[in-house]
Each structure stands twice: as C-alpha cells, then as structure tokens.
Amino acid sequence: VKSFSVQESAISQLQKRLCQVFLDAGICSIIKGITDRKETLSMNYANIKEFDIADGPGVRISLFVSGCRHHCKGCFNSMTWDFNYGQPYTEETTEHILSLLKPPYIQGFTLLGGEPFEPENQEVLVKVLKRIREELPEKDIWCYTGYTYDVDLCKGGKVFTPYTEEMLSYIDLLVDGEYVEALHDVTLLFRGSSNQRLIPLHGYEAPQERPKPVPFDPAK
Questions:
Q1: Are 169 and 132 in contact (CB under 8 A)?
Q2: CA 134 to CA 141: how far, in whole Å?
Q3: Three-state DSSP class for 111?
Q4: How many angstroms separate the CA atoms of 117 and 152, rounded?
Q5: What angle, 0 to 180 degrees and rounded to 10, lies between the N-to-C axes of helices 119-135 and 91-101?
Q6: Residue 116's closest CA among 156, 77, 155?
Q7: How far is the CA of 62 from the CAs of 58, 106, 140, 203, in angstroms?
Q8: Do residues 66 and 113 touch, judged by C-beta distance below 8 A?
C-alpha cells in the first residue's frame, strides 16, 4: 500500500509540474501575442500611392502615414490627423513598398501624411527609411513635415526623439513648415504655401523652382 501511495504521489507531482509547464507556455504565448500586436499597431498608415508625380521629382512611391497634430486650415488630407485612421503598418507593408520601388522608372520614395515626425511614428519610420537606403541606395527619399528643420527637429526641439537624427540621415530632401492657407501659391514647386521650404540634405541637389509667370499686359 505504501509503495502504491508513493507512486501515486510521484505521478501527481509530475502532473502538477507538467500542468505548470503548459500553463507557463500558454501565458508566454499570450504575452508574445499581445506584444506582437502592439508592434503591429504602433503606427497606422492611410495610403500607399503608386506612380505619384505630385510629391517630388519623377515617378515615385509615396507613403501617407496617420497621425498629425498640426491640423492646418485647408489641409487636403485631414482624415489622416487621426492616429487610428487607416490600417496598421506591418513588416509586410515595408516589403510591399520595397517591391514597388524596385522598377528602374521609379525615381524615389516620398514620406508624408499625416505627420511622419510625430514622436509616435518615428520609431517605425526610421526602420523603413533604413531599409530603403540600404537596399535601394539609388532611389532618392523625400519627406514632408509640418515641423521646422532648424527648430522642431533639432536637439531640444518639440519632436526631437532618439530616432530623429537617424531619420534625417536617410532623407535627401525635406519639405518643412505647416501649410498656411493664406500663403497658398499654385506656382510653388512641390509645396502648397510660400512659408514651406525645400531643404536639400547631404549634398542632394534640389530641383529648380519654376519661373514666375509674367503678368499679361494688354498695352504691349
């Protein structure tokens, strides 16, 4: 009887240990699932525009991210102010962008939104830009931001994060400044209002401005 009791006790302890192992594994799996989901949901994007000829030179692939605190009057893309607008950005999204960029007739990549330099978006986007720069170095990278390069994006600036300088290191040309409806000018090159600047970085050559139209003079 004693031997049977000891054997039964040992089996019971083994069962408990196995149950604990499976329980721990289950909890780890749940925690991993939650963590992975947080990574997936850390940034949303509104749209990937193929064959874009409006947001930089040549034919481009443009990523419109979600989330913007500027709320510029007259914004053409106000739905992207909401950080939850659109769909979650994933690793598969990056792979899709890289495949779209590969054809030789695609000159480059443009990042806009929304606001790429919102602190919540920078951690994801710095990885995207790094992949493009490393795997497709012949493509140029443009970025539109409502923040100013020499104030908000420098150390101590409003949206400076541990990722800001690295993001800027991958960008060839930055279009900075909020859109100001009162300063709207249809003759401007690749921007909407006259306060916005085309800032070439790292020796990149910015495209030349369009010549201003000459007013019609009926007397001539």
A1: no
A2: 12
A3: strand
A4: 10
A5: 40
A6: 77
A7: 12, 11, 12, 22
A8: yes
